[in-house]
Amino acid sequence: MPDQPSPTPQPTAGPRPARTVPHAMPIVAMVLVVVLLGAFLWLLQRNERDEEALALIKDALWVEQNLHFQLASDEDKLERLAEALGRSEVDMRQFATMARLVVNTNPAIERLLWLDAQGHATLAEPPLSDGGEAAENPTRTDAFRIARSSGLRAYGAPYRIDATDHGFDVAFPLHRDGVFVGMLVGVFSFEQMLTHHVPWWFAQRYQLEVVDAAGTVLGAKSRMAVPGSMAGPAPDPARSHVIPFDPPGHGVTLVATAYPSDSNLVRTILVAAIFALTGSALWSLWSLRRHIAGRLRAEEALRTEHAFRKAMEDSLTVGMRARDLEGRITYVNPAFCRMVGLSAAELVGCGPPMPYWLPDELERAEAAFADVLAGRAPEIGLEMRFRRANGERFDALIYEAPLIDANGRQTGWMGSVLDITERKRSEDLARQQQERLQQTSRLITMGEMASTLAHELNQPLSAIASYCTGSLNRLRSGRFDTDEVAAALEKLAAQAKRAGLVVRRIHDFVRKREPNIAPCSLAQVLEDCVGLTGADAARLGVRVELDAPADLPAVTGDRILLQQLVLNLMRNGIEAMARTPRADRRLTVTVRVEDGVMLTAIRDRGCGVTPDVADRLFSPFFTTKREGMGMGLNICRSIVEHHHGRLWFEPAVVGADGAAGGSRFLFTLPIHAHAAEAAE
Ligand code: ADP
């Protein structure tokens, strides 16, 4: 079954459940997740920082120890050299060789100096650029002084040893046989110490700097930027550890600063992704919430709309009935249920024959049903008789229309059903009354015409009587000519026929009968009317002229009613000429086909219609005549309208045909369909 408008469910009454809590729940849960995630990440970060700080301290201590170990090992070598220098006479050449060996094998030692007891440089390896430099170095002088007075090695304050490097002196006093003979000074380079004694892995993780008390960087070891690649991230100053570097002392410190770890970057990306995902989840929750709010609003609007439609549907007095394309009922409204006395449940799903069809009109109902399904339902509606569940019959007027769904597809048929029983009953009553009135009016007309008709009948009857007497006399005398008697009898028969015709016309005219709309000859009708009024007209000296073309087509109508119509108009015309000079009393009846209809005009030369009379001419019981009833024109109009024609009057143009004024009463009648087709 195609999708049909199924009866929509009733709107649920009562308070709606509170939606605030279920809606807030996911948001609260989401926020909690975000908060917990944040707390977890913060803890993780803090742990990691603690671990890194610990590692930094451990590594820094380790490197400081390593430097001290290297420094101590270098000092041991210098100590031994100093002892050697104090033990015996060492000539310059020997010292130079030993010094070169020490300098070359210990990269941290930049230079070795042999100073005499006054502090003047005896020898330097590698040689000094200017001879007096060593003595003028104030830090070295201090170290010299301390070493000499203490007899122990002494460390000088850091100083700039060349354009790029800083270093410090370690002074070893030389004693020979307990006498101070000079000083061995080793110049240590910070840069070289760091370069050679700090391992690569340390430099990879930390930047190591040697800083003096004033904050001047004396030497540093950091990541080597690979040529052609981007330099790594800068060290994080917040994560550094400072260890006093003593010896040499003098406020020199080692500062190890950690580089941000690579894993941090990955983690940052991960965290960012998690937060982005959480954000998008929150956003989708929010949009879902908005969507739900929109839906609820739409549902509310739909509910109101449904309630309105239901109220409208229930208050309809027109029966509505939807059928699918196969003709099964898919929907009925309460009015239709009331009409047929069946419930919606009993009707929905029903197919032909429908329970409300009349058993004796099944064929007609089925034909009409087939017409609807074939899309041939009459636009002006279809009248049918149905029965209610209690057996009562009723007249229904049905309008069928295609049922189109939202996609523009036809899904069935929608019928509106009107119970027109009452209307039909009153129409029938009105029609019966009208017929009775017409009948009465015809009887009255006949009554009025009785004396003239009696006179008209009198003529043939007296002629018949005289022909009969004459013929009898001839027969009785025994002297008769057969031909003569036959001729008299023929005349008698003709007169009898004439009398019969008059009687037939009167009989036809006043007979009580059902109207019979059929093709009929208007010319014949007019002729009959001329015949019926002939006597009256003759009595009043009115000439009746009939102008009807021989090939006049038939009209659709009831012959007797049309006769009544024409007779009324003709009699009115004749009566209107009562004061017209006898010579001008002419009544002209003209028939023509004009604009596809039959137009009949009855023109008199009477008194005409004054404007105040014209306004009320067609009103019932309006008359200006003493014995008049005033129903003639009113009946004429209803007859013409019953025949789908039009009746009106025009004042006749004075002098147009050389005669006095008068009136023209005109009416149109539809030409019978076959005749009209033939004419085309
Ligand atoms: P009735 O003939 O009984 O008076 P009608 O309805 O036929 O009733 O006519 C109503 C009135 O219309 C008449 O009384 C008359 O005054 C006026 N009338 C009708 N036909 C003509 C006519 N041909 N010429 C002038 N007056 C007319």
Describe this structure in words.
The protein has 680 residues and is an alpha+beta fold. Among the domains are: 316-419, 2-Layer Sandwich (Beta-Lactamase); 424-513, Helix Hairpins (Orthogonal Bundle), CATH 1.10.287; 515-680, 2-Layer Sandwich (Heat Shock Protein 90). Helices cover 49% and strands 21% of the residues. It has 17 helices and 22 strands. Strands 1, 2, 3, 4, 5 and 6 form a 6-stranded antiparallel β-sheet that branches. A hairpin with a 2-residue loop joins strand 5 and strand 6. The radius of gyration is 69 Å and the shape is rod-shaped. Residues 1-18 and 225-231 have low confidence and may be disordered. The structure holds adenosine-5'-diphosphate. Residues 568, 572-573, 576, 604, 606-609, 613, 617, 622-625, 628-630, 632-634, 663 line the site of adenosine-5'-diphosphate.
Mean pLDDT across all amino acids = 84
Name of the CATH first level of the domain at 515-680: Alpha Beta
Portion in helices: 40-55%
Measured between the Cα atoms of the first and last residue, the distance is: 49 Å
Give the CATH H-level superfamily of the domain at 515-680.
Histidine kinase-like ATPase, C-terminal domain
Q: Unreliable runs, pLDDT <50, ≥5 residues?
A: 1-18, 225-231
